[in-house]
Design a protein that fits this description.
Layout: H1 2-21, E1 27-31, H2 35-38, H3 44-64, E2 70-76, H4 92-98, H5 108-119, E3 130-133
Parallel strand pairs: 1-2, 2-3
Helix pairs in contact: 1-3
């Protein structure tokens, strides 16, 4: 329940409050994960929470569109952070890298850039979308 509360309930409650206040050209961007699109063996609770975020984004995008509010998500794959470090010890890092066509983990800036794009005027006609930031490890269309 801790993972679901952290990854889903907290996002739902926060965005629900934000959605009451955002209008006319407002933007909401939520962070999901590639795990929400393809699952994650041994981490089904995490994958379920991130998959629910994707459904939430799509539903909220339709609900808020009449108020000219756009709702999107970014779905990072592996990001080279302190949080990911324990899971990437030993041979696991090499295994993960072998599954990323670009051959590298994302840096936090690689995720921040697409969020900034979705918040910019350049993305004024994008809503209900999931922007994948995973080096090609999950190719969705």
């Amino acid at each position: 329940m801790e993972v679901l509360d952290a990854n889903l309930t907290s996002v739902f409650l926060t965005v629900r409050e934000a959605a009451r206040r955002v209008t006319n050209g407002g933007k909401i961007v939520i962070v999901s994960s590639t795990a929400g699109q393809r699952g994650e063996a041994g981490h089904s609770h995490y994958a379920a929470s991130k998959g629910a975020i994707i459904s939430f984004v799509k539903s909220l995008a339709v609900e808020l569109a009449p108020r000219d509010v756009q709702v999107n998500a970014v779905a990072p794959g592996w990001v080279d952070t302190e949080m990911a470090a324990p899971a990437l010890r030993g041979g696991e890092r090499a295994r993960v890298l072998s599954q990323i066509p670009l051959g590298r983990l994302a840096a936090s800036d690689d995720v921040a850039g697409p969020i900034l794009f979705l918040c910019s005027k350049l993305a004024r006609h994008i809503t209900g979308e999931v922007l994948n930031v995973n080096g090609g490890s999950v190719l969705c269309g």
